[in-house]
Amino acid sequence: MKSEYDVIVIGAGPAGSQAARAAASEGLDVLLIEKRQEIGDPVRCAEGVGKEGISKFIEPDQRWICAEVTGSRIYSPDGTMVELAEKHSGNEVGYVLERKIFDREIAKLAAKAGAEVQVKTQARGLIIENGYVKGIKGMYRGTEFEARAKVVVGADGVESRVGRWAGINTALKPKDIETCAQFLITDIDIDPTYCEFYIGSKYAPGGYVWVFPKGKREANVGMGMLGSHFKGKHPIEYIREFAEWKFPEGKIIETVVGAVPVSGMLPKLSVNGLVLVGDAGHVSDPITGGGIINALESGDIAGKVIAECIKAGDVSQAKLSKYDHEAREKLGKMLDRNYKVKEVVTGVSDNTMNAVAHSLQGVSFDDISIPKLLTEVVKRNPMVLKELVGLF
C-alpha cells in the first residue's frame, strides 16, 4: 500500500468495485479497500438480478449463476397466485447469483483494470483540509495508516459512515429502511425456474417474503420488513415461522441478516473530494429493495466522472456534482417514482391485496402497461380504488 493515490474506494461490494474498475480503466491510480478478509462474504442479499442489467457490466458466467429463472409467482395473503413472465418481474428476476463468487469477480475486474485491492483494511476517518476530503485514516492488520487521494469514494453501505464523516446526512427513518433476514435452505421441493414472493401482514408486515432458487433443491428464503412496522417480532422470527410452514423438511445451512435503504436516492451524493455510491447513496429500489444493478450503475457513473474531474484538475463538489446529475437521470427519477409506489403499497390492507390478486386472475400480462393494469384492477373491483388512489 502506498501513501498516495488518485482515488481511494472504501468498500468492495459491486458499487465500490465497479467504481474502482471504471476509474482505473481511465488510467487513474486506484486503491480499493475492504474491511473484511474475504470479498463477498458474508452475503447480505437475496442474490436476484435481471439478465439485461447484469450483462452490461460483466459477461454471464455459470461459476456465479446458481439458477436461471423465467418468471415470478406472487402470492397474496389468502394464497391467490399471480404469475408474471421474466420481462414483467423487475430487476431482481433473471439470474440468482452466488454473491461470494460474483463480488470477487467484479473486484478482479477492477484489479485487472489496474486497481490495487487490499482486504482486512478498515477506514477509520477522513483527512479533510480546507473543506476538501484529501484521503483516509485507516487500520491495516492492526496498524494505523494514512493514505491521501484526490477523490475518496464511499461504498460502505447502509447509513454510510464515510458519508457522515464528510458531512452528508445518510441516516434513514424507520419507514425508509428494510430490516431483513434470510436462510439458505437445502433439500426442499421448489421450481428452480421461478422466484416466489409472499405478501401480507402474516408473512412480512410492510414487506414481503422471497424464495429465490439456488439450484434444484435449494433456495434463499428471506423476508424484509419496514422499521416502521416493527412491533417486537424480529424478521428472523417471521422467516423461521414461514420456513417451518413452507419447507418443514428443509435444512437451514446458512443464516444472514442485514438492512436495505428504501428511501430513494440521497439528495446529495458528492462533496469536495468525495462521492457516495451504491447503498451508501441509497440507490436500491424502494419497492423491492433490490440494489445490485443500481449499485453497478452508480459505481460506473462515479468512476467515469471522477476520472474527468481529476484530469481537469478540479475535484470540487461543483465539478463532481456531474455524478449526482447523471445518477439522478439514470436512476433517481425511477427511484423517486418507486418510492411513491412503496408509500402507497405498504399501507394497503390484506383484504385489498387479496382483492387485487383476485382481479388479476385471467389477465394476460404480455401486452399491458402498468397504468392499464391498474385501470383493469379498479374496473374489475372498484372497492380497491380508495387504497390505491395514490398510484394514479
From TrEMBL:
<comment type="pathway">
    <text>Membrane lipid metabolism; glycerophospholipid metabolism.</text>
</comment>
<keyword id="KW-0444">Lipid biosynthesis</keyword>
<feature type="binding site">
    <location>
        <position position="48"/>
    </location>
    <ligand>
        <name>FAD</name>
    </ligand>
</feature>
<dbReference type="GO" id="GO:0050660">
    <property type="term" value="F:flavin adenine dinucleotide binding"/>
</dbReference>
<comment type="function">
    <text>Is involved in the reduction of 2,3-digeranylgeranylglycerophospholipids (unsaturated archaeols) into 2,3-diphytanylglycerophospholipids (saturated archaeols) in the biosynthesis of archaeal membrane lipids. Catalyzes the formation of archaetidic acid (2,3-di-O-phytanyl-sn-glyceryl phosphate) from 2,3-di-O-geranylgeranylglyceryl phosphate (DGGGP) via the hydrogenation of each double bond of the isoprenoid chains.</text>
</comment>
<keyword id="KW-0443">Lipid metabolism</keyword>
<feature type="binding site">
    <location>
        <position position="123"/>
    </location>
    <ligand>
        <name>FAD</name>
    </ligand>
</feature>
<dbReference type="Pfam" id="PF12831">
    <property type="entry name" value="FAD_oxidored"/>
</dbReference>
<keyword id="KW-0560">Oxidoreductase</keyword>
<feature type="binding site">
    <location>
        <position position="46"/>
    </location>
    <ligand>
        <name>FAD</name>
    </ligand>
</feature>
<dbReference type="GO" id="GO:0045550">
    <property type="term" value="F:geranylgeranyl reductase activity"/>
</dbReference>
<dbReference type="InterPro" id="IPR054715">
    <property type="entry name" value="GGR_cat"/>
</dbReference>
<dbReference type="InterPro" id="IPR036188">
    <property type="entry name" value="FAD/NAD-bd_sf"/>
</dbReference>
<keyword id="KW-1208">Phospholipid metabolism</keyword>
<keyword id="KW-0274">FAD</keyword>
<keyword id="KW-0594">Phospholipid biosynthesis</keyword>
<feature type="binding site">
    <location>
        <position position="291"/>
    </location>
    <ligand>
        <name>FAD</name>
    </ligand>
</feature>
<feature type="binding site">
    <location>
        <position position="292"/>
    </location>
    <ligand>
        <name>FAD</name>
    </ligand>
</feature>
<feature type="binding site">
    <location>
        <position position="99"/>
    </location>
    <ligand>
        <name>FAD</name>
    </ligand>
</feature>
<feature type="binding site">
    <location>
        <position position="15"/>
    </location>
    <ligand>
        <name>FAD</name>
    </ligand>
</feature>
<dbReference type="GO" id="GO:0046467">
    <property type="term" value="P:membrane lipid biosynthetic process"/>
</dbReference>
<dbReference type="InterPro" id="IPR050407">
    <property type="entry name" value="Geranylgeranyl_reductase"/>
</dbReference>
<protein>
    <recommendedName>
        <fullName>Digeranylgeranylglycerophospholipid reductase</fullName>
        <ecNumber>1.3.7.11</ecNumber>
    </recommendedName>
</protein>
<dbReference type="InterPro" id="IPR023590">
    <property type="entry name" value="DGGGPL_reductase"/>
</dbReference>
<dbReference type="InterPro" id="IPR011777">
    <property type="entry name" value="Geranylgeranyl_Rdtase_fam"/>
</dbReference>
<feature type="binding site">
    <location>
        <position position="279"/>
    </location>
    <ligand>
        <name>FAD</name>
    </ligand>
</feature>
<dbReference type="Pfam" id="PF22578">
    <property type="entry name" value="GGR_cat"/>
</dbReference>
<dbReference type="GO" id="GO:0016628">
    <property type="term" value="F:oxidoreductase activity, acting on the CH-CH group of donors, NAD or NADP as acceptor"/>
</dbReference>
<feature type="binding site">
    <location>
        <position position="45"/>
    </location>
    <ligand>
        <name>FAD</name>
    </ligand>
</feature>
<feature type="domain" description="Digeranylgeranylglycerophospholipid reductase catalytic">
    <location>
        <begin position="176"/>
        <end position="260"/>
    </location>
</feature>
<comment type="similarity">
    <text>Belongs to the geranylgeranyl reductase family. DGGGPL reductase subfamily.</text>
</comment>
<dbReference type="GO" id="GO:0046474">
    <property type="term" value="P:glycerophospholipid biosynthetic process"/>
</dbReference>
<dbReference type="GO" id="GO:0016020">
    <property type="term" value="C:membrane"/>
</dbReference>
<feature type="binding site">
    <location>
        <position position="34"/>
    </location>
    <ligand>
        <name>FAD</name>
    </ligand>
</feature>
<dbReference type="GO" id="GO:0016636">
    <property type="term" value="F:oxidoreductase activity, acting on the CH-CH group of donors, iron-sulfur protein as acceptor"/>
</dbReference>
<keyword id="KW-0285">Flavoprotein</keyword>
